Each structure stands twice: as structure tokens, then as C-alpha cells.
Amino acid sequence: MPLKTHHDEQPTINLTPMIDIVFLLIIFFMVGTKFSEMEPKIPVKVPEVSHAGALTAAPERRIVTILESGEVALDDQMMTVPDLIHELKLARQEYPELGVVIRGAAMGAFQNVASVLSACQAAGISEMGISVNVAGATEGVRR
């Protein structure tokens, strides 16, 4: 008695929907870039406002670094404590919910960290954090 053998076809992946979506995304970005290029070329006198707040969300927390020597840096820019207060006040005017992370050198004097905390409070910053490394953790883990 002969046995019938049935061969199943191998399943295939239909790539048509994925290709359609990729083409739609390409068209979307091409049209979007064309409008952004054309906008400044249209001559229009736009209205003026007295105060324009930030249209974007607040950026990531600003980083204040305190070296062992007591020098202070805000986002890799060296400055004095009064300059730090001034810069943070300016940044807070644009982003009222601005936060700060303070990175003090482990062997530095705690007075320097206290001075920077006081400067942040004088600038009106309410969201402050102190960066530390977790002992015994893998390299790069910070809290």
C-alpha cells in the first residue's frame, strides 16, 4: 500500500507592509523638510511679543562639578560661585523647573559643596541632587 507524503511549504515573511511603511516615512520626512526650507523664504512680518517663554521642556539637569581645589564648573565651563548664581538664575528664568546635579570631589573640602548648595538655593533652584558612586558596584554605576 503506497503512503502519501505531504510536503508543507516553508512559511515566508511578507515584506510588503514593512516596505509600504518605510516609503511612507520617507515621503513624510521629505515633505517636512521641504516646508521647513520654504518657510523663511516667504516674506511676512510676524507679530512681536513682550515676553516669550521656552517652548520646549526643561533640559536635563545641569551639572555643577566641584574640584578638589574648590574650583566650580557648570556644564564643563569653569566659573566662580557668584557667576554660578547668575548663570543658574538666567537658566531658571527660561526653565522654572530646572534641576541641578552636584558632583563634588571625594577628597575635596565639604565647605565647597556647601557653598555650591547655598548658591543653587540663592538662584532659586529647588530640585538638587548629589552625584555619588556606589561602593563595590560595576564601573560607571552612579546614583
Question: How does this model look, in words?
Answer:
This protein is of the alpha/beta class and 143 residues long. It has helices at 16-38, 81-94, 110-122; strands at 62-66, 72-74, 77-79, 99-104, 127-130. The chain has a domain at 62-130: 2-Layer Sandwich (Nucleotidyltransferase, domain 5). The chain contains three helices and five strands; from the N terminus they run αβββαβαβ. The chain has a five-stranded mixed beta sheet with strand order 3-2-1-4-5. Strand 2 and strand 3 form a beta hairpin.
Topology:
Blueprint: H1 16-38, E1 62-66, E2 72-74, E3 77-79, H2 81-94, E4 99-104, H3 110-122, E5 127-130
Helix pairs in contact: 2-3
**What's the rounded overall pLDDT mean?**
79
Number of helix segments?
A: 3
CATH class of one domain: Alpha Beta
Indicate the low-confidence ranges by residue numbers: none
In terms of DSSP E residues, the strand content is 5-15%
How big is the Rg? 28 Å
Number of strands: 5
What name does the CATH topology of one domain carry?
A: Nucleotidyltransferase, domain 5
Helix content: 25-40%
> Secondary-structure element order, as H and E?
HEEEHEHE
Structural class: alpha/beta
